[in-house]
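Step 1: inspect the first sequence and its tokens.
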Amino acid sequence: MNAKLGPSREHGQDPSPPTRRVIDVVELLVRASAAPLTLAEICRELGISRSTGHAILATLCACDWVVRDPLSGRYALGSGFPHMPRINPAMSQMLRDPLRQLCAELGMAVCISEINGGHIAVIDSLAPDGAQPLVQAGQRLPFVAPFGREFVAWTPTADTQEWLDAAGPVNDVYRARMPKVLNEIQRRGYGIERLSDPLLKVYAALVALEGGNAPDPVAVRLAGAVADLTIVDFLPGELAQIEQCALATISAPIFDRHREVVMTVSAQPYRQLTLEEVQRIGYHVCAFAENASSLVAEQVDDSGETVVNRTR
């Protein structure tokens, strides 16, 4: 999160100011990928005229680098935009063996996810004995509430509110509950996803829909439906009843050296567990996340920046 709008740096005398403006538009949309922007917002942030902004965006849309939502009029990165992987390949490989060890320790499927282009993307997934995990590498969900709680529980209030609002209208009980859930995830160190029939159906539909670089509007509304149809996570007073609920995932955040969440690690029980089992799994995923955070923090490029791309 923490995406700052506007040009990412001060520019000197550019050889081609028109080209610079195109780059500025692309960079702005990359930084604002979790919240697509209107033409007016883009022009205001970059200090360009409406006609210039429209001409640039029309060209980018024609190349599929950018898409325009016909209902909201907002612009986001399109399927033709070339994406570099956010996680350095060496870093992904570095976490492979620890992930395999976590899988063996827990005796269940595990995965690592990141935020990329407004999606929660699974970048690695393993299951015991070489079995096929239910949540596989490459699968994506829209990064809107209630999905991705472990990414936002440690973020500023404004970023959390943006994530909450992205799902659209939801019931008042859910809206009152979510700040308490995020506080509890931060206190506990990990999030717990309840397994329910609505969640399974919505998840299957979301995986089928999430094929482009920009979140599908229908997928975003489906994600919001989870908030209306399910109870999200567990508050302290509810843990006594945890054995009555099947659980989908138990997830912990992985931080970079700036203490921003760049990945999450998840165990995938997909069954009922005792409170003691939940706490044991939570301990192991948090230990993995702490070790992974140390590894991420050590990986910096020549400029001193973390090799994990923090662009949302």
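Step 2: inspect the second sequence and its tokens, then contrast the two.
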Amino acid sequence: METSKRYRDVARQHLRDAIVDAARELTIAHGWDNVRMAEVATVVGTSRQTVYNEFASKAGLAEALARREVERFVADVRACLFTHGDDVRAGAYAAILRVLREAAGNPLIKAILSSARDADPLLPFLTTRAEIALVAATAVVQDWARAHAPEISDDDLRFGAESIVRLVVSHIVLPTAAVEHTAERLADFATLLVATYSATPARR
């Protein structure tokens, strides 16, 4: 019985992954506004009702698509931040540069941002939806900053980490300079923030 349940769970996850993959491909090709649940089902080789059964609505599918993309970015951020050991600035620079480069070259991000002028419904899932992008990315930055400055208060740590994430996201959405230059400046800011808060008496 347990083996059968595990098999069903694995099969369902494969189906969900395939649906999200199809939605990603169609979004890159045509833009999210032009993606239809029936078309997603056709690409996967399943029924439209099955797609709705798994994600309830197009908004549910959008959230799943955005969540997976964010998870990939966050995994990269964690690896870059912690690879550089005690060198705070090197870790910050590597992580920020990786995110900016990946965002600039990511075909899904490009598709979303290029249609942002038409109020693409996917954009908020990758920017302002706190339960997806902000919370996940902020948690990683908090872990990293805490490792370098354990005396930072919880409130300062949370606010500083979220501020860094919001700045990076803003430069993804509206880039103003080469990614290398932006990463340099944001890394300076992150380093200064960690140093400033670590030197400030804790306010708990």
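Step 3: confirm your contrast with the notes below.
The chain has ten helices and no strands. The chain has two domains: 1-56, 63-199.
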